[in-house]
Amino acid sequence: MGIKFALFSLRFKYIRDSEAKVMDMKKQNENITGNRHNRRLNGYVFGIILVVANLFMVFPIMAQNDIKTIVIDPGHGGSDGGARGKYTRESVVALQISLKLREELAKEMPELKVLLTRDKDVLPGGLSDVNGALRWRANFANENNADLFISIHLNATPGNQRYENVKTGTKEQTYYAYSGKGKSRKKVKKTRTVAIYEKHRLPPSVFGTQTYVLASDYYKGKVAAASKASAKMEDYEQGDEEGVEMPEMDPVEARIRAKQYAKYFFQKSLTLATYCEEEFAKIGRRSMGVWQRDWAAAAGIHVLTATQMPSILIESGFVDHWEEEDYLKSDEGSEAMAKSIVEAIKRYRNGLINPENLTTQKTQANVTE
């Protein structure tokens, strides 16, 4: 972070002088003409110059050369059990994998600070409200200045909960019929053989891993979070540069900077997500790829939207698929998943330290409907 702030201080004079010139031009024009059209034109010019200025402001931020803090978020918890399998719940297995992930990170990269949003089967923050817990998770990552946010979940689908009627035997059934006509009509007792059917659940057929990132064009929430991160950076710089007058944050500037932050977050998130899916495939898991999560009503979307750092949400498998449930609940399975995520983080970190080794991902992924 010290390098980042040093780079910021080197560009203060350039930014301050540029904005001062623009403001002088704007004031002179307003004093001379008082014309609304000219004021609007100057606003456009001011915005364009701010775009150029912000390129100098944001690029040093993006020159992150390592990670120091990772927040791991086991999804759900406590009363919010999440998806259900035959004998366990999503919240329990997600916590098991997350604890293994923390353990593996401590072995492989002990210099990193690794934090969990919860380490028991409860909602984080001592809360009982699910929505409040979602906000708490994001705030926890932001307040701890995390460099990565990794949320661990398990999937479920109606496709794994199909049933059919299966013939299991026969039985004799008594029924009555009428014979004759008029006064001679009478009810006659009869029997017949009928099939016995039972409702059986079909073997689940949907399985595999998925990793989600926030959709590349779904910036509304992330821009707001990035604006807060940008403001925090300004506060730090203003206190760090004693005697230096900081330029006032213009709404146009804030939005430009926030969008640049959001795009940066997306690329970094996509890279890490892709590495995770590649590592899962290496251990024999069926990878369903990287998906963009872009529906506002989906549970868990807030943690991707409101976090002020690259963020991913891993669906470790389908808890309603019997074999995957057994695998992920086992020590062997949860440990293998944790080690795969660690390998993905190593590759991501290596790309930050040695940019020439970073695999740039195309800014696209599967889009949920």
What do you see in this structure?
With 369 residues, this protein is an alpha/beta fold. It has helices at residues 2-10, 12-33, 36-62, 90-108, 130-143, 220-240, 251-282, 301-305, 322-329, 331-353, and strands at residues 69-74, 113-116, 148-155, 163-179, 186-201, 209-214, 287-293, 311-318, 366-367. It has 3 domains: 2-62; 69-160 and 204-367, 3-Layer(aba) Sandwich (Aminopeptidase); 163-201, no CATH class. The protein has a 7-stranded mixed beta sheet, sandwiched between helices.
Structure keywords:
elongated; 20% strand; 10 helices; Aminopeptidase; 3 domains; two-stranded antiparallel ribbon; 369 residues; alpha/beta
Question: How is this fold's topology laid out?
Answer:
Elements: H1 2-10, H2 12-33, H3 36-62, E1 69-74, H4 90-108, E2 113-116, H5 130-143, E3 148-155, E4 163-179, E5 186-201, E6 209-214, H6 220-240, H7 251-282, E7 287-293, H8 301-305, E8 311-318, H9 322-329, H10 331-353, E9 366-367
Parallel strand pairs: 1-2, 1-3, 3-8, 6-7, 7-9
Antiparallel strand pairs: 4-5, 6-8
Helix pairs in contact: 2-3, 3-7, 4-10, 6-7, 7-10, 9-10
Helix content: 40-55%
CATH H level of the largest domain: which superfamily? Zn-dependent exopeptidases
Question: Unreliable segments (pLDDT under 50, ≥5 consecutive)?
Answer: 1-16, 50-61, 231-249
Strand order in the sheet with the most strands? 2-1-3-8-6-7-9
For the record, what CATH class of the largest domain applies?
Alpha Beta
Overall number of structural domains: 3
CATH topology of the largest domain: Aminopeptidase
Q: N-to-C SSE series? A: HHHEHEHEEEEHHEHEHHE
How large, in whole angstroms, is the Cα Rg?
A: 29 Å
Q: Quickly give the CATH architecture of the largest domain.
A: 3-Layer(aba) Sandwich
- Number of DSSP-assigned strands: 9
